């Protein structure tokens, strides 16, 4: 078993998964902040939390360099958070954080490939420190009075640093924490809550008091929740997030109070001498209500997160394979030829039930594999940002339809081609600032990345409002490289633009005026074809370019029509069939080379006899005996002549064995209900051979 | 589970050492190292694939797994012969690639001691020499021991040879 997901240590696996997720989340936040030129307190908290988690888990896994870097970033955001700094050099900040992200990503990749994570974060850390110093300096200038004490807090970050503050100055909270019912060691969880609060609270009382080693407390906490009273200066939302740091919290009840209520009869405040015996009037400002609601909804989210598990794709693939086999065996049983002609009411009923269940099972497994395309799309934000800086172009990336779901396998293959297309659009599609002003366009260029479902396919559009492609320039280049094989006036614009997808069309010498130097466009096309997709280009000179990518939703299961030719059975994907019909021999027109064609509704289509194409012996050779199936691709259509149609069914696509080299016109194969094999035809391949 | 299996194969490797499955094509007897052989099945329905060299007969469905089958007779450029009830498919697996070999009939499993195996003659006169990595002697008989790796991977060379010839 070569699947790396199965052999790796579960802890490490989890770390890698979580790490890359957090980093991606962070990237999104920081790019958003930079775009809006402001950083919300929420985002700061979020970043702080992410850094804290990365630091903790990296230190645990002994990846000290990552931990060090995360620590210094954490410091930076701690400062921002504590001082509520709003005037920040956002570009500088995001540069720093992004390079930090890149560093962590790089290390994670190293670890994934079983290499030693040995990157040196020192330069980055010193850059971050420098940035922090600068920020502190400017901050001190502006708010000399405040900052002195804040500075002090900063240095004392890991100690409970509010001890000295008078309890009168802070707000008092009365919090009741409920843990997950099935969570073990409630008292330890409670201890964690207290531990988290220590840093921010000046005084803490809790009930039950003995939470270090007591089964009795466990019971109390389980029944009535864990009561905490504390006093702090930090903001509501912060309290909120700190409380939520503890694991397994089911519900939080937060109240801001003037005086602590009497918590439990036995409770005696540790540091305060006055014994509170009167429950004070609870102050419930609308704000607090809102927070409470938020807490509850948030803890709802927590619950949902906890009910999610991550599974390696290898396991999913195995599951998929097995479900595929079950679907086939189900057909083998229920449509067994030995049952023909028998009166089996009970059996038929049971068989129907089985079929229904296997269908459902199949749907569920397929849906597990579906993931929103936003995974790919959001990566593009970063690319656009980096490139717009490098190229000094102002660009806005609009993302539409990011929730469109696509099979995981397809997503994995999609990232590179789309990245390439976006890069091309940025580099060659959009004009420079000056160019845009001259052309009377807004200085800020726009790239739209859109996904939408379209039958069994997903359409991805990458549209820019740049200068578009010039037919003449492409033709000129194509002539030079000897790609033009037809008279030029016969070539449609589409034909001309598709030249840039050809391997020979690489013009690395200089950037020409049309989008894409051809660098890698052939690779993009090839990669997309590998997942059954295709690409078309539309462009208007001076107005912009639109690149359309069509990919199938899933690679695993398709609807197909089964046909027979001689003894062989083939499956044609339903999506590529336009119609089927019978023909008379008289309708066939043949040219001098013996190429046959037919006229349908004023259009002429060539006839491809499948038995001739694939060299199959069959009795059915006269046109009137067989049947015509019109297949189409985006650009072409033709009629396939086959012996007969057998029926429509869903089939599980299997790849041909590696030993068999790629056959033009065959996309794969599938196992039929009777155990036989049917080859799946690939309309693109067949029409491409013409 | 597969890990366990592969461990098992490793530990049983010793007992497989020197064992060969012999089969015949025409009058000649060939031997395959037993560690490559996964199973022997009777002839079953083969699905043809267009545009394949003649010796690749097509693919079969072996309990849900699709494997290609090669006619060894044609692979060694011998006259084709109709299949009969003795025709067998030997399924071998090398580097995770499974492939079925159609042979005239399967004989037996024999042990050939290493000292009884001699390398084939240097001069490559015979048409199938490329695939024979040794010649085993057992009593008065001679078995041609096949090189499975080459059998699977030498297509390119074959194609070039065909193109030149």
From TrEMBL, chain A:
Sequence ranges assigned to domain CheW-like in this UniProt record: 557-690
The protein's role, per its UniProt record: Involved in the transmission of sensory signals from the chemoreceptors to the flagellar motors. CheA is autophosphorylated; it can transfer its phosphate group to either CheB or CheY.
Protein's UniProt keywords contain Phosphoprotein: yes
Name the UniProt record assigns to this protein: Chemotaxis protein CheA
Pfam families given in the database record: CheW (PF01584), H-kinase_dim (PF02895), HATPase_c (PF02518), Hpt (PF01627), P2 (PF07194)
Species, as recorded: Pelosinus propionicus DSM 13327
Catalytic activity: ATP + protein L-histidine = ADP + protein N-phospho-L-histidine
PANTHER family from the UniProt entry: CHEMOTAXIS PROTEIN CHEA, SENSOR HISTIDINE KINASE CHEA
Keyword annotations: ATP-binding, Chemotaxis, Cytoplasm, Kinase, Nucleotide-binding, Phosphoprotein, Transferase, Two-component regulatory system
Location within or outside the cell: Cytoplasm
InterPro entries in alphabetical order: Bact_Chemotaxis_CheA (IPR051315), CheA-like_dim (IPR004105), CheA-like_homodim_sf (IPR037006), CheA-like_P2_sf (IPR037052), CheA_P2-bd (IPR010808), CheW-like_dom_sf (IPR036061), CheW-lke_dom (IPR002545), CheY-binding_CheA (IPR035891)
Superkingdom to which the source organism belongs: Bacteria
EC number(s) given by UniProt: 2.7.13.3
SMART domains hit by this protein: CheW (SM00260), H-kinase_dim (SM01231), HATPase_c (SM00387), HPT (SM00073)
Keyword Acetylation attributed: no
GO biological process, one term: chemotaxis
Automatic annotation (TrEMBL), chain B:
Domain CheW-like residues, every copy: 17-157
InterPro entries, sorted: CheW, CheW-like_dom_sf, CheW-lke_dom
SMART domains: CheW (SM00260)
Cited Pfam families: CheW
GO biological process: chemotaxis; signal transduction
Domain of life: Bacteria
GO CC annotation terms, alphabetical: cytosol
SUPFAM superfamilies the UniProt entry points to: CheW-like
Protein name in UniProt: Purine-binding chemotaxis protein CheW
């Amino acid at each position: 078993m070569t699947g790396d997901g199965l052999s790796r240590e579960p802890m490490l696996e989890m770390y890698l998964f979580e790490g890359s997720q957090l980093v991606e989340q962070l990237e999104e936040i920081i790019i958003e902040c930079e775009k809006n030129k402001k950083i919300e307190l929420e985002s700061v908290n979020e970043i702080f939390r992410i850094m804290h988690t990365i630091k903790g888990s990296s230190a645990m896994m002994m990846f000290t360099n990552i931990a060090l870097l995360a620590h210094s970033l954490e410091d930076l955001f701690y400062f921002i958070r504590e001082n509520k700094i709003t005037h920040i050099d956002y570009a500088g900040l995001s540069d720093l954080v992004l390079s930090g992200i890149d560093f962590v990503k790089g290390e994670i990749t190293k670890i994934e490939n079983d290499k030693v994570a040995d990157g040196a974060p020192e330069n980055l850390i010193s850059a971050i420190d420098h940035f922090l110093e600068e920020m502190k300096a400017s901050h001190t200038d502006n708010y000399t009075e405040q900052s002195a004490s804040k500075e002090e807090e900063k240095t004392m970050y890991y100690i409970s640093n509010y001890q000295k503050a008078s309890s009168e100055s802070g707000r008092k909270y009365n919090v009741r924490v409920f843990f997950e019912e099935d969570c073990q060691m409630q008292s330890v969880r409670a201890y964690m809550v207290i531990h988290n609060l220590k840093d921010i609270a000046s005084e803490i009382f809790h009930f039950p008091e003995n939470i270090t080693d007591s089964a009795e407390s466990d019971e109390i906490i389980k029944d009535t929740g864990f009561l905490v009273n504390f006093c702090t200066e930090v903001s509501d939302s912060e309290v909120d997030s700190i409380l939520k740091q503890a694991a397994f919290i089911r519900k939080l009840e937060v109240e801001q109070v003037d005086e602590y209520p009497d918590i439990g009869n036995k409770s005696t405040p540790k540091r305060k001498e006055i014994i509170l015996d009167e429950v004070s009037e609870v102050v419930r400002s609308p704000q607090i209500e809102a927070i409470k609601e938020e807490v509850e909804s948030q803890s709802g989210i927590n619950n949902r997160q906890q009910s999610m598990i991550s599974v390696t794709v290898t396991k999913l693939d195995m599951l998929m394979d097995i479900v595929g086999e079950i679907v086939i065996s189900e057909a083998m049983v229920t449509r067994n030829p030995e049952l023909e002609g028998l009166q089996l009411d009970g059996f038929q009923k049971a068989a129907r039930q089985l079929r229904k269940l296997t269908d459902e099972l199949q749907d569920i497994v397929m849906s597990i594999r579906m993931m929103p395309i936003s995974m790919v799309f959001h990566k593009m934000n970063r690319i656009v940002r980096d490139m717009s800086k490098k190229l000094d172009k102002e660009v806005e990336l609009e993302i539409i339809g990011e929730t469109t779901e696509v099979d995981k396998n397809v997503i994995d293959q999609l990232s590179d081609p789309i990245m390439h297309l976006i890069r091309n659009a940025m580099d060659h599609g959009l004009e420079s600032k000056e160019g845009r002003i001259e052309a009377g366009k807004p200085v800020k260029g726009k790239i739209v990345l859109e996904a939408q479902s379209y039958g069994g396919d997903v359409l991805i559009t990458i549209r820019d409002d740049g200068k578009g492609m010039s037919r003449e320039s492409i033709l000129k280049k194509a002539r030079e490289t000897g790609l033009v094989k037809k008279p030029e006036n016969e070539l449609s614009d589409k034909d001309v633009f598709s030249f840039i997808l050809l391997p020979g069309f690489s013009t690395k010498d200089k950037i020409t005026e049309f989008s894409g130097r051809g660098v890698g466009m052939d690779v993009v096309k090839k990669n997309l074809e590998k997942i059954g997709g295709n690409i078309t280009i539309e462009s208007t000179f001076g107005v912009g370019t639109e690149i359309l990518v069509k990919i199938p939703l899933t690679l695993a299961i398709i609807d197909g029509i089964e046909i027979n030719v001689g003894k062989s059975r083939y499956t044609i994907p339903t999506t590529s069939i336009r119609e089927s019909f019978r023909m008379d021999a008289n309708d066939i027109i043949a040219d001098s080379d013996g190429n046959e064609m037919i006229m349908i509704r004023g259009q002429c289509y060539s006839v491809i006899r499948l038995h001739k194409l694939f060299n199959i012996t069959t009795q059915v050779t006269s046109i009137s005996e067989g049947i015509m199936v019109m297949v189409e691709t985006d650009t072409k259509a033709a009629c396939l002549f086959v012996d007969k149609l057998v029926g429509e069914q869903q089939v599980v696509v299997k790849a041909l064995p590696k030993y068999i080299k790629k056959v033009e016109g065959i996309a794969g194969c599938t196992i039929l209900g009777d155990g036989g094999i049917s080859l799946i035809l690939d309309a693109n391949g067949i029409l491409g051979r013409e | 589970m597969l890990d366990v299996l592969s461990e098992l194969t490793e530990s049983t490797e010793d007992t497989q050492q020197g064992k060969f499955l012999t089969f015949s094509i025409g009058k000649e007897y060939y031997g395959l190292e037993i560690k490559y052989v996964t199973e022997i099945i009777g002839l079953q329905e083969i699905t043809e694939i267009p545009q394949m060299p003649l010796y690749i007969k097509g693919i079969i469905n072996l309990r849900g797994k699709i494997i290609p089958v090669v006619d060894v007779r044609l692979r060694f450029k011998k006259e084709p012969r109709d299949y009969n009830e003795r025709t067998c498919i030997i399924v071998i697996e090398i580097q995770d690639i499974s492939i079925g070999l159609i042979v005239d009939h399967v004989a037996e499993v024999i042990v050939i001691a290493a000292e009884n195996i001699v390398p084939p003659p240097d001069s490559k006169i015979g048409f199938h020499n490329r695939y024979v990595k040794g010649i085993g002697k057992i009593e008065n008989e001679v078995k041609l021991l096949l090189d499975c790796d080459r059998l699977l991977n030498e297509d390119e060379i074959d194609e070039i040879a065909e193109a030149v010839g």
